[in-house]
């Protein structure tokens, strides 16, 4: 964890703490790379969603994968007609561990859109934690997943220890994301 803190601090210094698109993307890539290594998942199995307000509604907008960020406003309501794991996490402000995600009804946009690495696959296992911008201020959600045609293909189950480690990343990364997120995001 100290390694992530040092990397984020260096990125912040290099960009003079400014909220530029370059600083935002570099910070996101650093956080996602750390999560992918920590849990031995692919980069396309990590998502970062940030909370926004649009027309009086609270939405979650994809900041990562970068393909989603660059495509524009890939967002969905926190309280939509189809439940989302990210919406549940933000609403409850509690971490979520689901090792049978494919059988639970949920918003599946993240699964259906192919990335540069591979075609869209169903999420079989998922961890979802709040990103904290400060005490009592959830600014978004971090998710790590294991995708595959079947649970066996996706890989091993996540554990409560994994969830605790991702929760710590959400607490550590939040203040940096808060500083570098461009106003027009």
Spell out the key features of this protein.
globular, 6-stranded antiparallel beta sheet, 185 residues, 41% helix, Beta-Lactamase, alpha+beta
Walk me through the structure.
The protein is α+β, with helices and mostly antiparallel strands. It has a single domain (2-180), classed as GAF domain (Beta-Lactamase), CATH 3.30.450.40. Helices cover 41% and strands 25% of the residues. It has a six-stranded antiparallel sheet with strand order 3-2-1-6-5-4, sandwiched between helices. α1 packs antiparallel against α2 and α1 (2-14) runs parallel beside α7 (160-180). The model has no long low-confidence stretch (mean pLDDT 87).
What structural category arises from helix and sheet content?
A: alpha+beta
Percent in helix: 40-55%
Using the 3D structure, state the CATH architecture. 2-Layer Sandwich
Oligomer: single chain
Contiguous low-pLDDT stretches (5 residues minimum) are none
Radius of gyration: 15 Å
Strand order, sheet with most strands: 3-2-1-6-5-4
Mean pLDDT: 87
Our estimate of the beta-strand percent is 15-25%
What is the number of helical segments per DSSP (H or I, 4+ residues)?
A: 7
H and E order: HHEEHEHEHEEHH
Shape: globular
Q: Would you state the CATH class? A: Alpha Beta
Distance between the termini: 27 Å
Quantity of strands, as a count? 6
